Amino acid sequence: MSKPLVRLYVSQHLGDGASVALSREASHYLIEVMRMQAGDTVALFDGETGEWEAVIDEPHRKQARLSIRRQLRVLETVPDLWLLFAPIKRGRIDFIVEKACELGVARAQPVITQRTIVDRVPLDRLHANMVEAAEQCGRTALPTLAEPVQLEKLLADWPEGRALLFCDETGGQPMLEALKDRPRGTPAAILIGPEGGFTDAERQMIRALPSAVPLSLGPRILRADTAAVAAISLWQAAQGDWA
Hints:
Elements: E1 7-9, E2 19-21, H1 24-33, E3 41-45, E4 51-58, E5 65-73, E6 81-85, H2 92-103, E7 107-112, H3 123-137, E8 144-145, E9 149-150, H4 151-156, E10 163-167, E11 173-174, H5 175-179, E12 188-192, H6 200-207, E13 212-216, H7 224-238
Parallel strand pairs: 1-3, 6-7, 6-12, 7-8, 7-9, 10-12, 10-13, 11-13
Antiparallel strand pairs: 2-5, 3-4, 4-5
Helix pairs in contact: 2-3, 2-7
């Protein structure tokens, strides 16, 4: 059995015959860490055109150059699921975006609530975490990572036709029960609150949205990162591409 190709994400648009110059970090990884040489092959993906086989032409540790040989896989079809989450402390927020990528969300959106305790959302670091997850788990479509938005603005601009699955710690309809009769393929978003939960005013504001569906994730109190993984998993099993 042939050894799996090393996979790397590149921001450059890929296609037949393209020449690719890797970043300093990616070049160091290939040449210094993986000890790859001229003529070796890797798999590249750009999040837009699928996965491509590329051969190393210039194995420079600061800027390796590769040329595209052939397409290995077309761009994956991704369920239309968003994850909306209140930023939490480092480590746990990294876990959320990493697992959201692995589980197959299309978009990750930080949402600022009244009880959000994080002052700054490190989008560059979160994007890097998603890239690493996509490289390791074989994704060809990288989720969109949106700029943070205030909860009030999120609700005011909510798109028509997209269900807002509100994971309410005070209770709601069991998630699988709520999803079983909904048409498959309906655009949806999962909303997870901060570590301290939503305020009563926020909860009322969310529930007032016609698209909102208050849901319960079971009898146990879950931490925000656990709730995100549980909710995505349940949606994928009932409505996504796991069934």
